[in-house]
Amino acid sequence: MQVSSIGRFNMGANPNPATGGYQSGSFNMMYSWPSSPGTSYSTVRVDGQDYIYGSSGGVIEPPVDDNNTGTNRSSWLLPNGIKVTQILRIVEGQGTGKRDTAEIRYELENTSSTQHNVGLRVMNDVMLANNDGALFRVPGIGHFTTEKEFVGEEVPDYFLSMRSFEDSRNVAAGTLSGGEATPPDRFVIGRWPGLVDSVFDYTTSSGRSITSDSAYAAYWTNRSLPPGERLTFVHYYGASGVTQDLRPPLAVNMFAPTSASIDATGALMPFTMSAFVRNTGNAPAENTYVEFTSLAGFELASPRGVSLGTLAPGQEKPVSWVVRAPASSTEQTYTLGVRVGANGVEAKVVERPIMVPASSFSTETRPYVAIGDSTTTGLGVASCPLEDEKGEYPYGCPVEPANGSAYPDILQRMLGSPYSDNYTTLEPGDYKAVYDPYYDALSDALLTGAEPPTAPALGPPDGHVNRVSVFGYTIKKSVEAYEDPGGANGDRRDSTPWESHLHAVDDAQNLVTVSLQRVA
């Protein structure tokens, strides 16, 4: 990273460690590293008046490098008494786990005796490996080549910029949420000539191409700043750490943090994991699917499997999951993965590790209590498919009988857990009235070690077995059972039957209507 005498900066990847300049393998991420910076700047708005950092007001502290901490710090005082401090620091990237990312931090302090309304815009002129019209990918949107604006909850957790969509090396990432990042109120990807001239406000056009000269702008707006108070705004930009498999016909780019974050209370924070699937072949890819493959206790806010339909040659579609890692009193390392395939296309799996720090969690946890049919609860999977093995393994099979291979992790969590069959013709609307007392009694019994209550039995067998199963935490009662095991969420392509059931139960557990909830 380079910083000018007035605080403007640019950066490149893989610099020469001795000089900080270009070496073989380096590439720029902002215009036009390693040349002097000047085309990116930040703007502070105070009571409707705009001030460009480093060019307005008086300098308090000129930019100074601290090579021991990898930090550059400077500050200016604006005419209305707002002190602005810019702190640029090299930190570990969320996507790489290496010191290859810039933490871009601004502190606004009111040194006057009057309350002010303040805002901040950070505009960076992006350039990837000498492509001044760098391209972008955003989770939930995919790739695009024209201007886009994101406001409020639409603002992505992160974005990727790249030299080209086929380039697996020259890729950068910006982080807008997670860790110490301050989620912006507005985020714009647009043409640099328009953004550089606008100082603060900028109106995007959905048809305006960014492929000749692109930039991004992050906005934090309309903040009240009383006398003596301070506001801090942080985001990150640096190397990407994208995990890729670009072999045709389905190219996969997977992005996720290398470590989970914890909040001020010590609890794990959710993170976004994304896969971008692009058909680089010459024929349509029919029934394309993407699947979250990790089964080590990760909680998802949406089904793990997603159908992308038919991808035309050159077409790309994104898939994102909001994920919460399993809590533990010790640091753990897991593998995140996605599986991608289509009709006539061999499935491929892309994986990357994630470190999950020790976090606060309840040492007294209630069990999962799942109510529904065998697909909903997973006990159709845990029960042995061969009648003569049920006596030997009353709580589930340790191996898949067809080939003797071990079941995945999710089934291992079920083995040995007590459960009871309930032959009934309950309708979904009856679940709450019938199972509320049983659920409470069963949960209390499992916590205290008391004898579990007998499961309700309200009717004779009707060709359909409803079950109550016990897992490791709590799935709250749901009046909407997962009733589509053969539909869009449950159709598992060419999977073996037990694998299909496993994915169906994982979808059921992660549907919002099932309300996965950890209860102390």
Number of helices: 6
Can you summarize the main beta sheet?
9 strands, antiparallel
* Content of β-strand: 35-45%
Q: N-to-C terminal Cα separation, in Å?
A: 46 Å
Characterise this structure.
With 520 residues, this protein is mainly beta. It has three domains: 2-239, Beta-galactosidase, Chain A, domain 5; 243-356, Immunoglobulin-like (Sandwich); 369-514, no CATH class. 10% of the residues lie in helices and 39% in strands. The protein contains six helices and 33 strands. The strands form eight sheets. A nine-stranded antiparallel beta sheet has the order 7-8-9-10-19-16-15-12-13, with no helix packed on it. Strands 6-5-11-18-17-14 form a six-stranded antiparallel beta sheet. A hairpin with a 4-residue loop joins strand 30 (399-400) and strand 31 (405-406). The longest helix is centred in the C-terminal third of the chain and has 18 residues, at 431-448. The radius of gyration is 27 Å and the shape is globular.
